[in-house]
Amino acid sequence: MGIHPGELAVFRFIGILVLTIPLVIRNGSNPFGPPELRHFLLLRGIAGATSLFLRFSAFRYLPIADASVIIFSVPVFVSLFACIFLKEPCGVFQTITVLLTMLGLSLTTKLPIIFGSDGDININSQYVNASIPSLLVNMTVASDSRQELLANQKLHHIYGVLSALTSTIFASSVFIFIRKAKGAHHSVIMFNFGWVAIVETVIITALMDGFSSPKTGTEWLLIILLGIFSFCGQILLTRSLQLEQAGPVAVVRAATDIALAFVWQLWLFHDVPDMWSIAGALLVTTCIIITSVRKWVMTQPEHSRIKSKCYFMIQ
């Protein structure tokens, strides 16, 4: 699909809002929520819309698996934010987990400080020094074009990485805002998310001149499915965060999303991730699982054998 990421985000939020309205009417409560929670509902909408816009941008410029590993490292950052804003326990072990996650992200994003700045495409200087003048001119032009293409690829990669990382920060804050607003009905949270997100993404997309009409029936079908699946995913996420702590919910979601991202990339696009992407994904997934285990250990009774044996995890 050649549709701008901002326009895709708008369609997604329209689907969420339209399908949420009947739930709000059925619930019968104020659609804008209790007065004391409205600022959290507003912040949840802004953070969610910004996160999704940046996520779609990341998927446009990075392979699905690479973007997903960055975006769905959310649980580690959710736990960090929960320590700061929700006063959930935090310690040395969790700090180490965050650092390992950052290392995994560095492998996946292939930071120049680790992999160098030359890239994978090298121009062979022997062809530039060829003895046939006509070939020399042609090869020089081809070399310039290739260098320009490589520069554009690097620029797109940097833009994709920055979009994914920033999306992760905003997505992590969403979990905190939903936990803060858990006193509101889940349909009210969804309703406010929908209208705030539509306003924000319409403005951003219009400023970027990103609106264009879908051209085929397949594109319209995919857009409709995007709205339906977005509604289902958001209502399940909102409900789960009302019933469970932010950390475990983020862990289960992220581990599933990363695994599926690699499956979709291989199956649908036949794009095989390189060893660095796989290594980074394994490291990030391991940290996500460790974060989940830590949360589980913390819920055990004070004098349980499990908690005593794994005491180092809650330090």
Tally of separate domains: 1
Biggest sheet architecture: none
Mean pLDDT: 78
In what range is the share of β-strand residues? under 5%
List the helices and strands in order: HHHHHHHHHHHHH
User: Uncertain runs with pLDDT below 50, 5 residues or more?
Assistant: 117-137
| SS elements, strand count | 0
Organism: Medioppia subpectinata
Domain EamA: 3-108, 159-292
Subcellular location: Membrane
Membrane topology: Multi-pass membrane protein
Explained architecture:
One of its GO terms (cellular component) is membrane. It is a multi-pass membrane protein. This is EamA domain-containing protein. α1 runs antiparallel to α2, α5 runs antiparallel to α12 and α9 packs across α10. The longest helix is centred in the middle third of the chain and has 48 residues. About 7% of the residues have low confidence. This protein has one domain. The protein has 13 helices and no strands. The protein is mostly helical and 315 residues long.
